[in-house]
Amino acid sequence: MIRVSIVGGSGYAGGDLLRVLLFHPQVEIVQVTSERHAGKLVTSVHPNLRKLTRLKFVAIDELEPCDVLFLGLPHGHVMKRVEQFEALAGTLIDLSADFRLNDPEHYKKWYGDDHACPERLTDFVYGIPELHRAEMVGARRIASAGCNATATILALHPLYEAGLVDSAVVEVKAGSSQGGNRFSEASHHPERSGAVRSYKPTGHRHVGEMQQELGADNIHFSATSIEMVRGILATCHVFLNRQLTEKDIWKLYRGAYGTEPFIRIVKERSGIHRYPEPKLLAGGNYCDIGFEIDEHSNRLVVVSALDNLMKGAAGQAVQAFNIAHGFDETLGLEFPGLHPV
Amino acid sequence: MASCPVCDADVETADDTVVGELMTCDDCGCELEVLSLEPAKLGEAPEAEEDWGE
What we know:
By secondary structure, chain A is α/β, with parallel strands linked by helices.
């Protein structure tokens, strides 16, 4: 058994990490930290886990050595304490943005501050398994990818890799859980309920990850908050540099993702679920991808959907953990979602 | 074996498949009609149009 502790386990991603890891056949959860809730049962914050665990939150300073630390702290915290965490565990899987970008200048551009330990940025493998599986095998440092970045990168990677993109405009519809579990004026129910809020028309920080992983700067990204708790729907308008048919696109995506356990090409000719829908993916680790080409304008619309707390955070981190340890990468992640929900 | 006329996926035909039989493509979900057997050829099966509010 791999002895695992979760640092920053009171947030939504921490809750999903617990939910997944409690059923993982190769994992023993040793400790879960929360400074705010230290001493309380984890079920006081994550009530869906009642009768499944009697673990109590501890403070970070009470952490004991273990094999793997999942780090669910807010951005900017891990890089300041990375040596403390490295002294406690051989493997760190960081869900924050601290080690996602390889270049310190990029970090400063997108996060506004100098990185606390720029020399360590390249120690971490960027955490999208579909792009970095080989580097993850045996990896001791993994930086789990951002949720919007994951939805966009997975949608567009086959096209960028094939050199087919003139430019891409991506619009993400995002659920409220992206904002974390701390309330604000913006999340106050009378303000948030029913809102369709353009919260980042330009300059979203995840664009740095998209540019890094797709190797391009011709990606234009906007995000809109909608009435949804979990989920992301990314609609990517791709202007191609050559004429392609739908069969060509099928071949490209089938070649890229046909054997991937958590990516499904969803493009059906009939029925009510013809394209990816985040609602069907809640709680699971799948990313569904569909597409349609406008042959008159040569605009390809690629649509991807995922659960931001799973494939966009905790689930993808566990998938990376499985690969790093040589386990079947679907272990603990078999939940197929609910229908109807 | 035949290929789906919509997405080009391989679609398996059985020994007892007959011309006119309807099949479904596993990849794109398109309903297909067996047009011929030697060689196996598939076409899109006609379907009732749905009203998607257009």
